[in-house]
Design goal:
Elements lengths: L6 E6 L2 H12 L2 E7 L7 E6 L8 E6 L19 E4 L3 H14 L2 E7 L1 H4 L1 E6 L5 E6 L5
Parallel strand pairs: 1-4, 5-8
Antiparallel strand pairs: 2-3, 3-4, 6-7, 7-8
Length: about 140
């Protein structure tokens, strides 16, 4: 059996603010939410792509876990990032425009060749880099 990537868990300072960011800018939707379910003290939200064929889940974790050393974890970025694909250059431009107005645009849209495509970067509430792209070659 080959492993299948199913989720990415992200430690955040404010699960509600980060959830709102990914819902607003990435069109993700909340599928599960709980607090202190196993006595860990964590508040957890699972967000899923609006595209139903995409089973990938972003897990947001607020709080500390002694099982994993406690404390807050480092920021993903500036070059390390999450990547979301959109259907057109116009969508990249629209996302970038809304992000600029919200004060979260990290890099304006630009074309970076046929492999990377047309893309922009946003910064989520914890400072993690998030890319939105059109035309990336993934295979």
């Amino acid at each position: 059996m080959r492993p299948n990537l199913t989720h990415f868990a992200l430690h955040v300072a404010n699960v509600d603010a980060t959830s709102a960011f990914y819902e607003q800018h990435a069109g993700m939707r909340l599928v599960r939410s709980w607090a202190d379910q196993d006595g860990s003290g964590l508040t957890v939200k699972w967000l899923k792509s609006a595209e139903t064929a995409n089973p990938f889940v972003l897990v947001l974790l607020e709080g500390t876990s002694e099982n994993f050393g406690g404390g807050h974890q480092g920021i993903i970025g500036p070059l390390s990032h999450f990547g979301f694909a959109v259907a057109s250059r116009a969508e990249v431009d629209d996302i970038a425009g809304k992000a600029k107005a919200a004060g979260v645009l990290l890099m304006a849209p630009r074309y970076s060749g046929e492999t990377v495509g047309y893309h922009c970067y946003l910064k989520d509430p914890d400072g993690h880099s998030v890319e939105f792209s059109f035309g990336q070659v993934l295979e």
